[in-house]
Design a protein that fits this description.
Layout: E1 5-9, H1 14-26, E2 31-36, E3 56-60, H2 66-76, E4 80-83, H3 90-95, H4 97-119, E5 127-133, H5 157-176, E6 180-185, E7 187-189, H6 198-207, E8 212-215, E9 221-226, H7 227-240, E10 246-249, E11 254-256, H8 257-271, E12 283-286, H9 301-307, H10 315-328, H11 330-338, H12 340-348
Parallel strand pairs: 1-2, 1-4, 2-3, 4-5, 5-6, 6-10, 7-9, 8-12
Antiparallel strand pairs: 9-11
Helix pairs in contact: 1-7, 2-4, 4-5, 6-8, 8-10
Bound molecules: nicotinamide-adenine-dinucleotide and 2'deoxy-thymidine-5'-diphospho-alpha-D-glucose.
Length: about 350
């Protein structure tokens, strides 16, 4: 196994922490550098089990800080990037689109420029892997599936910022020959999911006997994938993907929101030893999200055909594993909802 020095941005976030864990454990000869600003969504608690490994390093840094990115590339002689750092929550993007444009567009552009500057004399063995989202395709008609050639049609400030970053990645491949690859995944769920997103929010609210907010009529459809399956797909694409290509990632697992909420309530009743129907009484229909995309549905056949990747965790198993994890990690949930960990970072990383 040849040695690689891979900068993973956003490695302290939900998906990033699973990618870091997979790479650190699976590739002991690689050096994994986790570059993360530790925003509200970044949490080093997510990586306690790998933080002492010899092939893992954490660099607290902002992708908007070009100078620090360049120093980090130089210091670690980076030859691969897996770029996950982003503002990721659609609802927040409706309130603060500028922050999304800054982090997701300018931040991505910064890393592209640093990679190009650092690697341009010899691109062999280098790869800039950009983690994007199925949301850049907009909303899917009934019976339609997003393929890699589906036109980009972002409809929220979040997806517009991700689509723009995708275009910059393609432009650097086309204009400067930077070896790039992009993947676009559907909705993830699993351990360490921040409880502003639907599934962990529902679990947290049930545990606190709070209403379960369902936007609009609950008829929107999402295509759910267990986060470890996403991390394995990223591994497959990093090692087997073709330079310049885009890969869709998904598990053919569409759920109407209200059906998912009811299913989760049923499982929570079982786990908490409550009478069936108890948690569902907390369901509350609320005002719809502005511009709420009706349906996402991924066609992952290109990825499966080219790399052999397949999802391994069914939704029934994955959701139960997720619930079990949250029930066993109530302290983690309490910390992230009270912001106790942010307080800790302010003290620990003063001035950076
Ligand atoms: P997340 O919000 O849980 O984590 C984002 C991470 O990025 C955090 O650790 C945060 O501290 C870090 N970060 C934010 N701004 C930064 C900056 N300026 N500099 C350095 N680090 C910064 O996000 P997630 O859900 O894990 O998503 C990760 C990536 O995957 C994102 O690019 C997202 O668009 C994409 N994605 C997410 C999903 C999903 O269902 N969550 C699906 C498809 C694609
Ligand atoms: O499709 C991939 C995308 O999935 C990622 O790119 C995003 O980063 C990620 O946040 C996710 O976006 P969604 O907007 O689909 O996820 P969210 O968990 O916010 O919402 C899932 C669905 O549930 C969506 O239709 C909105 C609805 N919803 C959400 C919340 C938070 C509710 O009905 N009530 C809620 O309280």
């Amino acid at each position: 196994m040849s040695e690689r020095k891979i900068l993973i941005t956003g490695g302290a976030g939900f998906i990033g922490s699973h990618v870091v864990r997979l790479f650190v454990n699976k590739y002991p000869a690689y050096k994994i550098i986790n570059y993360d600003k530790l925003t509200y969504a970044g949490n080093l608690e997510n990586l306690r089990d790998v933080e002492d490994k010899a092939n893992y390093t954490f660099e607290k840094g902002d992708i908007l800080d070009l100078e620090h990115l360049l120093q980090t590339f130089t210091k670690h002689d980076v030859d691969g990037v897996i770029h996950l750092a982003a503002e990721s929550h659609v609802d927040r993007s409706l309130h603060n689109p500028n922050e999304f444009a800054a982090t997701n567009i300018i931040g991505t552009l910064n890393i592209l420029r640093v990679a190009q500057t650092f690697w341009h004399e010899d691109y062999r063995g280098k790869l800039f892997y950009h983690i994007s989202t199925d949301e850049v395709y907009g909303t899917a008609e009934h019976g339609q599936y997003f393929t890699e050639t589906t036109p980009i049609d972002p409809r929220s400030p979040y997806s517009a910022s991700k689509a723009s970053s995708d275009h910059f990645v393609s432009a650097f491949n086309n204009s400067f020959g930077l070896p790039t690859v992009i993947s676009r995944c559907s909705n993830n769920y699993g351990p360490y999911h921040f409880p502003e997103k639907l599934i962990p929010l529902l679990i947290n609210n049930i545990l606190n006997d709070k209403p379960l907010p369902v936007y609009g009529k609950g008829e929107n459809i999402r295509d759910w994938l267990y986060v470890e399956d996403h991390a394995r797909a990223i591994d497959a694409i990093f090692h087997k993907g073709k330079v310049g290509e885009v890969y869709n990632i998904g598990g053919n697992n569409e759920w109407k929101n209200i059906d998912l909420v009811n299913f989760l309530c049923h499982l929570m009743d079982q786990k908490l030893g409550k009478e069936d129907g108890t948690c569902a009484k907390l369901i509350t229909y609320v005002k719809d999200r502005a511009g709420h995309d009706l349906r996402y549905a991924i066609d992952p056949s290109k990825l499966i055909g080219e790399t052999g990747w397949r999802p391994e965790v069914s939704f029934e198993v994955g959701l139960e594993k997720t619930i079990d994890w949250f029930l066993a990690n109530k302290e983690w949930l309490r910390n992230v909802t009270t912001g106790a960990y942010l307080q800790y970072y302010t003290t620990m990383y003063q001035g950076r």
